[in-house]
Specification:
- The chain has a single domain (3-245), classed as Uracil-DNA glycosylase-like domain (Uracil-DNA Glycosylase, subunit E, 3-Layer(aba) Sandwich), CATH 3.40.470.
- Helices cover 40% and strands 11% of the residues.
- It has 11 helices and 7 strands.
- It binds uracil (URA).
- Residues 47-51, 54, 60-61, 65-66, 87, 168 line the site of uracil (URA).
């Protein structure tokens, strides 16, 4: 798919989401929130569902949690415009309650189609509902800050999934903020591992140069095993099955 075709596919999905009545969440929504970002990215961030501000604006992560997400991206030299950001459910659950299984299931095909259109190398899951979609059975307390292959049925069978706590969790529990920033440091390195697994040469896509700037990437040559640990310790990987821990890295430009 060309970048233009990816964009067209994402826009078509967005239009369908805006008019969707597949589950009860459409009844109370102000605006559906399909997601936003560039079609020329290798990285998608998947949250849980829109909150109050997102419902008003029709855009993902624009409230307090969104401000923290922007800070997290900035901490590794990335910006919202360089990634794609979406949610497991595209309409706000009333009172910000957890999404119900049937709502997640009804909305699932939209996320699947977004993943197919983007074909990301790396999926960063924000919170347990997103994590459960890509790595069912994993426990966030054990696997945050680590990556592993996505479940084949996730819609991104060739992507690595990197688990993070939801930014909103740090708004309620301040101690998680440092954990989030620490985990964020591992995201660019997980992207490097994802690129290696896909054996993707740094070929520019469209004019933006999707895989450009790899010269800025730190060397990770010793990690010949798909899930060898590039970071300082393998303990998390051992305790979390196929998860592997990624460590801090120099800034890796997406474009
Ligand atoms: N929380 C989410 O999970 N998604 C948003 O878009 C905003 C807050």
């Amino acid at each position: 798919m060309t970048e233009a075709e990816r964009r067209a596919a994402l826009d078509a999905i967005g239009a369908e989401v805006a008019a969707c009545t597949r589950c009860r969440l459409h009844e109370a929504r102000t605006k559906a929130v399909p997601g936003e970002g560039t079609a020329a990215t290798e990285v998608i961030f998947v949250g849980e569902g829109p909150g109050f501000n997102e419902d008003r604006q029709g855009r993902p992560f624009v409230g307090q949690a969104g401000a923290l997400l922007s800070e997290l991206l900035g901490s590794v030299g990335w910006s919202r415009e360089e990634v794609f950001i979406t949610n497991v459910v595209k309409c706000r659950p009333p009172e910000n309650r957890d999404p119900e299984p049937d709502e997640i299931a009804a909305c699932g095909p939209f996320l699947t189609r977004q993943l197919v259109a983007l074909d990301p190398a790396l999926v960063v899951t924000l919170g347990r509902f997103s994590m459960a979609r890509f790595n069912p059975g994993a426990r966030i307390g054990q696997v945050h800050g680590t990556f592993r292959p996505s479940a084949p049925e996730s819609g991104a069978p060739e992507a690595l999934t990197y688990a993070m706590y939801h930014p909103a969790a740090a708004l309620h529990q301040g101690s998680l903020k440092a954990t989030l920033f620490q985990d964020m440091e591992g995201v660019p390195l997980a992207l490097l591992e994802a690129r290696k697994l896909r054996s993707v040469a740094p070929v520019p896509l469209g004019t933006a140069g999707l895989l450009g700037e790899t010269a800025h990437a730190p060397a990770v040559s010793e990690a010949a095993e798909p899930f060898a640990t590039p970071g300082p310790s393998n303990a998390a990987a051992e305790s979390a099955g196929a998860f592997a821990e990624s460590g801090p890295t120099d800034q890796l430009s997406l474009f």
